[in-house]
Write a structure and sequence with these properties.
The chain is an alpha/beta fold and 604 residues long. Helix content is 40%, strand content 13%. The protein has helices at 3-31, 36-39, 42-49, 54-61, 87-97, 113-116, 125-140, 157-166, 187-198, 204-214, 226-236, 252-270, 277-280, 283-296, 302-312, 319-327, 343-349, 351-361, 453-461, 478-481, 490-498, 558-563, 571-576, 587-592, and strands at 67-72, 101-107, 147-151, 173-176, 382-387, 390-395, 419-424, 427-432, 442-450, 469-473, 503-507, 520-525, 542-546, 551-554.
Length: 604
């Protein structure tokens, strides 16, 4: 292992020691109990198995065979989760073949940021993660299960399921993906149509046709956003069947991998080494996930989600850890929005297995961690296929299938990872530099302040932004309105940048991978609603964003800056963010949520 990465890991271990030891002690106490059907009262057990066939009741109670919980994010509205419709039947069938049982313990909500972008519903998006975690806890709270299969794939769903699973850390748990949709219109063409629409050069009919050509079938969206970053990180953490992430939902091998998830979980339950997920996800596994994110230029949302996930396992990380790790982690992948390829092309070129192999071989990833695969993390460097009805895994070629998409560690796209911490008198924020042109790493310009994304869009439509400037979009943090992604701001800002203007955005909100080629200092903490310095900025103040050295400052003399008061959100905007589309129900979360850098956690 690289010495620098070992140092970061040891630092994480040291600051996590009290919380991690307390967490492991709770797991050990849970593991000392009898299995559920032997421990619970007879009435409790009768309720738990009432709807099962007679043979399954016999397996659970008399034969003491494994009983698996299925927690599913299935719905038939969202393309990524539609494939899960028949998974419970497949899982039950495979479990029965192995003399075990499986029950759908519960469902969790799954919302789509693509549908809610720029709409009030987007203000529920981040909080849906903790809602999913709580829903997972309710599903598993019946406490009659020997292990769990978690069925989910998209933005907040996998982090929520993982947080929920870690709060039942005594259970062996495997995550079951469903795969991406087939390639549609290429992402570059899609973006160009969006930019043309922002300029009024094409109408709604042309835009809808373009979007429908991109999002057209079952599976995840094919760009490398949060959903597909989830899948990359699940592979790096050893929580999938190796190589499961990016196989199309309708490929023959997909069902066999789902069945292998059942077989593997039953084997784990029956083995001496139970591999409870809370012990499997240790500090080194968290570092492996962080390295995989940085090496692929993954979603900035995970600088929030993985802080929360780690905290669920008693592990404390922050953005400094990501920043320092990035210095030692090469950027090995170029996938849209960081490049032109989609995840299907990434998979063909080598995919997660290629990246994990390169990171292991160069000392950027711990290979000797526990995984759900008996062979450990090195099994995740191989490609699965089906031969004579059985799964086999084979080594990948040493060379990349396409060097414009994925590269070896001795010839990376960059010597450092695709994410960077920005620090200065405006607080702490992050920037996704993997997509930003190098001539835009430093932007200095006058601030134009917006309290909503609609204000910026209106100013663009009026032609008021044809100049160099830094857009300051504030009151978009977790406490203010749930920290929505500001995806709709990318096309107009891209239009201005393409015209030659130097533009950037500074916000306490999120943009995920949507920031694309626009320099974007996001997740600024403290947020405006927590009296963060962003609330002191005035129109015309010069802001300097320097992604080379990692700084973000407003260039105002110290005395003036110190004497300024924080501006507050107008009563109108505050009321707008508090009502309709269910936002009233999340008032408690807005009140209690921690900062973005603390994972925007609502349950501490």
């Amino acid at each position: 292992m690289k010495h620098s990465i070992v140092e970061i890991t040891e630092r994480i271990k040291e600051k996590s020691r009290p919380t991690r030891l307390a967490y492991l002690a709770r797991i050990d106490a849970m593991l000392q109990r009898q299995r559920g059907a032997d421990r619970l009262g007879c009435a409790n057990v009768a309720h738990a198995i009432a709807a099962l066939p007679k043979n399954d009741k016999l397996r659970i109670v008399s034969e003491k065979k494994p009983n698996i919980a299925i927690v599913t994010a299935y719905n038939d509205m969202l393309s990524a989760h539609k494939p899960y419709e028949n998974y419970p039947s497949i899982i039950r069938d495979e479990a029965n073949k192995l003399d075990a049982t499986a029950q759908v313990a519960g469902g969790v909500p799954a919302m789509c940021d693509g549908i809610t972008q720029g709409e009030p519903g987007m203000e529920l998006s981040l909080f849906s993660r903790d809602t999913i975690a709580m829903s997972s806890a309710i599903a598993l709270s019946h406490d009659v299960f020997d292990g769990a299969l978690m069925l989910g794939i998209c933005d907040k769903i996998v982090p929520g399921l993982l947080i929920g699973a870690l709060h039942f850390g005594h259970l062996p748990t495997i995550f079951v993906p469903a795969g991406p949709m087939s390639t549609g219109i290429d992402n570059t063409s899609k973006s160009k149509v969006r930019e043309k629409y922002a300029q009024g050069l094409v109408g709604r009919e042309e835009l809808l046709a373009s979007e429908s050509a991109a999002y057209h079938g079952e599976g995840t969206c094919t760009f490398y956003g949060t959903a597909n970053s989830n899948q990359m990180l699940m592979e790096a953490m050893g929580l999938h069947i190796p190589g499961a992430a990016f196989i199309h939902p309708s490929e023959d091998i997909r069902e066999e991998i789902t069945r292998e998830s059942v077989r593997s979980l039953i084997n784990i339950i029956g083995s001496k080494q139970k591999k409870p997920i809370g012990k499997l996800v240790d500090e080194r596994v968290i570092v492996n996930a962080m390295a995989a994110l940085l090496a692929t230029g993954g979603s900035t949302n995970h600088l929030i989600h993985w802080v929360a996930i780690a905290r669920a396992a008693g592990i404390i990380i922050d953005w400094t850890d990501f920043h320092d790790l990035a210095k030692s982690t090469p950027l090995l992948a170029s996938i849209y929005p960081n490049g032109k390829a989609d995840v299907n092309e990434f998979q063909t070129a080598g995919g997660p297995a290629f990246v994990i192999r390169e990171l292991i071989e160069t000392g950027c990833m711990y290979p000797d961690v526990m995984t759900i695969s008996e062979g450990g993390l090195k099994e995740y460097t191989k490609k699965p296929s089906k031969e004579k009805g059985k799964l086999i895994w084979t080594d990948l070629p040493k060379k990349s299938g396409d060097e414009t998409i994925v590269r070896t560690a001795d010839h990376p796209f960059s010597e450092s990872g695709g994410l960077k911490l920005l620090n200065g008198n405006l607080g702490r924020s992050v920037i996704k530099i993997s997509a930003v042109p190098e001539d835009r790493y430093i932007i200095e310009g006058p601030a134009i302040i917006f309290d909503t994304q609609e204000e910026l869009l209106s100013a663009f439509d009026r032609g008021e932004l044809e100049k160099d400037f830094v857009a300051v979009v504030r009151f978009q943090g977790p406490k203010a309105n749930g920290m929505p992604e500001l995806h709709k701001l990318t096309p107009p800002l891209a239009v201005l940048q393409n015209k030659g203007f130097k533009v950037a955005i500074v916000t306490d909100g999120r943009m995920s991978g949507a920031s694309g080629k626009i320099p974007a200092a996001i997740h600024l903490s403290p947020e405006a609603s927590a009296n963060g310095p962003i609330g002191k900025i005035r129109n015309g103040d010069t802001i300097r964003l320097n992604a080379l050295v990692g700084t973000l400052n407003v260039l105002v003399d110290e005395d003036t800056w110190h004497e300024r008061e924080y501006e507050t959100l107008s009563d109108k905007h505050r009321n707008d963010n508090a009502h309709d589309i269910g936002r009233e129900l999340f008032a408690g979360m807005r009140k209690n949520v921690l900062s973005a850098e603390e994972g925007a956690v609502t349950w501490l």
